[in-house]
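Reviewers of the previous submission asked for a worked example of the structure-prediction workflow described in the proposal, so we include one complete record here. The input consisted solely of the amino acid sequence. No template or homolog information was supplied to the procedure at any stage.
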Amino acid sequence: MASGFLWPRSYNLGMLFDQITIVGVGLIGGSVGLAARARGAAGRVVGVDRDEATIAKAVALGAIDTGTTDLAEGVANSSLVVVCTPVDRIAEVILAAAPHVRPGTRFTDGGSTKAGIVSALQGKLPANVEYIAAHPLAGSEKAGAEHGRADMFQNRVTVVIISKFGTDWERTVAVGRFWEALGSRVVLMNAEEHDRTVAVTSHLPHAVASAVAGVTPTEWLRLSAGGFRDVTRVAAGDPQLWAAIFEANRDATLSALASFTDRLAEFRKLLEAGDHAGLVQWLTEGKKVRDALGT
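From that input alone, the workflow returned the following structure tokens.
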């Protein structure tokens, strides 16, 4: 299957799994639970988290039916396990959970980098247990299940990764249908292409937002308007989470950063030269790409 393939939407998906487990019931995990319950994608939703208060909150919010701090207990009876921990813990969690799941269980995740996780798990899972990597392109700079939404994935792309090491196609389809049932449009890609792409479309913008915010004195914020807020919104994200993302996708992010600094150097050269026509062209090129995105 060619990477970047968008499969047609299915209809009348119905219940896909009798029980699923979500490991990490924060913003994304909470939204997965809310969407799965609201859309009937799972009969029962179990949450696993290290913090009992987080589990209690997720139950109260209706994101999960029940929860536990015991990973082995939480995954034992589910046919799908969705890992929504920070990206640097996903492989560790899957390896710890895998000995305790039933044969035929599928793991998927919400991590924003893929190649490192796929590599870390290659050849290490029990027979008849598989990892089908996924990345829902949805979220918020806010954290916690209290900010989760049942419509978080509605009409948003979720990338499902085509593995190089023999993942059963039917199981890949089943996981893709799950994300589709939550409202997503599913795109199939390989892990390396995914990581190169999101380095430009997600990871670089976060670094730029943090850089703009970081050079702005707080006493100047009273003079900021919509442009500053739009550019820096994602800089409010969790620094620990984002440091892990940058480290996990270091090479692709460095490549994206090199292209960006070249682009800024071109702007500086035009501005220093007083090249009005060149500045207009430079801005027009950026506007063309932004206009193609739509509202």
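The chain has a mean pLDDT of 92. We consider this example representative of the routine output the project will generate in years two and three.
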